[in-house]
């Protein structure tokens, strides 16, 4: 087959074509990159994309980009998906995996979701390949971790700070923009907390002329691809072009993402509570089931699980148990005593209170406290209140910081009972 036109996105590609196949150069057309143009047209609407993806104020979005094949992120380093969900506080970060359609259709959606099932239970966002959600995610992203796929290059060109979780040196053309990007981006290392590595990437991205230069190699006809491609198509069809201009349009806002099926028992979590300089508390939570090698992100956590958790690793060792409502005719204290009997490691049992955004907590030594969130409550108010009460058992009011936002938890003295004796 002899093509009538070979479409290239950058003059740099034409020079490489000249070196590799000079007889093809007369048929080459540099027409820019329509995908890059749409991403750039979407940048003014970053907050709209973040809201459409369900990000709360203060949350950060990490996009994992994986192409296909054994050298891809999923093929060579799927453990990075686990690390992202295990090491990044679940209240502060959302993690989205943008997986190449070849993986979806080569292995099948059922197989891909089966491989990623533990991560989906922990909150991983996995958009379908037949949507533009990945484009919206790149615009909304705070960071990325990728491989040698095109999405990594797009993310870098948009100025998103990132890391390489895998990279197929043997399948990347030497001297190409992707090859240069592979040399410029830091690799994820196993013995440093991932959040620290992302922070370093963010600190180094601003004003990085090397990465800016590589990003500029995505297209040498910025924001003109629709115009140039349409001109090419109509000239080949020998038809007059439409009168209206061909301009890149912003990516459509994603429809509400389908909710993942979930169990009635909330996943066990480790909570890391640290005192702040003003006597408050900063609380960060992590999925317990995904923790692996110690990398310093959990110095002194306590374990929180829900009543009814069938896994004895969590139910018998949990410090805090989120209890179900008392049965008919059962008091809160009687229900708490049952929780302590069934969970031998539990020190604090917490119930949703009768008032909105309140928590009734019992300690194994007989203490009882009712705590209420003042003005506004964090997401998952009972679980966060329970962890705050466990970490700071004294005081009438405490400021609790969750995902960078402060909330006030009040414990009126009239709502406290000291243990007998």
Verbal overview:
- It is built from 17 helices and 16 strands.
- The chain is 33% helix and 19% strand.
- It has a nine-stranded mixed beta barrel with strand order 7-8-14-15-13-12-11-10-9. The protein has a four-stranded parallel sheet with strand order 4-3-5-6, sandwiched between helices.
- It is an alpha/beta fold and 421 residues long.
- The longest helix has 13 residues, at 225-237.
- The N and C termini lie far apart (91 Å).
- The model has no long low-confidence stretch (mean pLDDT 93).
- The chain has helices spanning 11-20, 34-42, 46-52, 73-77, 79-87, 101-107, 109-115, 117-121, 133-140, 150-157, 177-184, 194-205, 209-215, 225-237, 312-315, 332-342, 381-391; strands at residues 6-8, 28-30, 60-66, 93-99, 143-146, 162-164, 269-275, 281-287, 302-306, 320-322, 348-352, 358-363, 368-374, 397-402, 405-410, 416-417.
- Strand 12 and strand 13 form a beta hairpin.
Outline of the structure:
With 421 residues, the protein is an alpha/beta fold. Helix content is 33%, strand content 19%.
As a whole number of angstroms, the C-alpha radius of gyration is 26 Å
Secondary structure: number of strands = 16
The oligomeric state of the chains shown is single chain
Query: What structural category do the secondary elements indicate?
Result: alpha/beta
Given as residue ranges, the uncertain stretches (5+ residues, pLDDT < 50) are none
| Spatial ordering of strands, largest sheet | 7-8-14-15-13-12-11-10-9
What is the mean pLDDT?
Answer: 93
Largest sheet: 9 strands, mixed, barrel
Cα shape: elongated
Query: How far is it from the N-terminal to the C-terminal residue, by CA?
Result: 91 Å
Strand content: 15-25%
Q: Count of helices?
A: 17
Indicate the percent of residues in helices: 25-40%
């Amino acid at each position: 087959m002899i093509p009538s036109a070979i479409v290239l996105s950058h003059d740099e590609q034409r020079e490489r074509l000249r070196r590799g196949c000079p007889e093809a150069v007369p048929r080459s057309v540099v027409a820019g990159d329509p995908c890059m143009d749409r991403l750039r047209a979407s940048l003014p609407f970053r907050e709209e994309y973040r809201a459409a993806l369900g990000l709360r104020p203060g949350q950060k979005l990490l996009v994992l980009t994986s192409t296909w094949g054994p050298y891809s992120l999923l093929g060579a380093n799927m453990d990075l998906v686990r690390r992202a969900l295990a090491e990044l506080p679940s209240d502060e970060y959302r993690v989205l995996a943008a997986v190449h359609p070849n993986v979806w259709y080569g292995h099948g959606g059922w197989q891909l979701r089966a491989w990623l099932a533990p991560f989906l239970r922990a909150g991983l966002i996995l958009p379908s390949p037949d949507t533009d959600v990945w484009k919206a995610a790149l615009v909304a992203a705070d960071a990325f971790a990728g491989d040698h796929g095109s999405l990594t290059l797009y993310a870098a060109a948009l100025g998103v700070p990132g890391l390489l979780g895998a990279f197929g040196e043997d399948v990347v053309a030497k001297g190409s923009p992707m090859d240069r990007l592979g040399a410029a981006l830091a690799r994820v290392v196993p013995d440093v907390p991932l959040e620290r590595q992302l922070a370093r990437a963010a600190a180094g991205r601003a004003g990085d002329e090397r990465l800016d230069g590589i990003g500029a190699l995505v297209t040498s006809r910025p924001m003109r691809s629709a115009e140039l491609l349409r001109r090419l198509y109509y000239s080949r069809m020998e038809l007059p072009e439409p009168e209206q201009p061909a301009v890149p349009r912003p990516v459509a806002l994603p429809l509400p993402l389908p909710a993942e099926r979930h169990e009635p028992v909330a996943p066990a979590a480790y909570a890391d509570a640290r005192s702040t300089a003003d006597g408050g508390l900063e609380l960060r939570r992590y999925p317990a089931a995904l923790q692996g090698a110690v990398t310093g992100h959990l110095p002194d956590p306590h374990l929180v699980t829900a009543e009814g958790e069938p896994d004895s690793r969590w139910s018998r060792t949990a410090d805090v148990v989120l209890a179900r409502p008392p049965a008919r005719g059962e008091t809160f204290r009687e229900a708490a005593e049952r929780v302590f009997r069934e969970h031998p490691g539990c020190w604090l049992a917490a119930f949703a209170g009768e008032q909105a955004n309140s928590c009734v907590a019992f300690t194994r030594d007989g203490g009882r406290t009712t705590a209420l969130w003042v003005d506004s409550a964090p997401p998952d108010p009972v679980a966060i209140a329970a962890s705050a009460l466990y970490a700071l058992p004294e005081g009438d009011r405490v400021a609790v910081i969750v995902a960078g936002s402060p909330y006030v938890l009040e414990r009126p003295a009239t709502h406290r009972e000291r243990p007998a004796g």
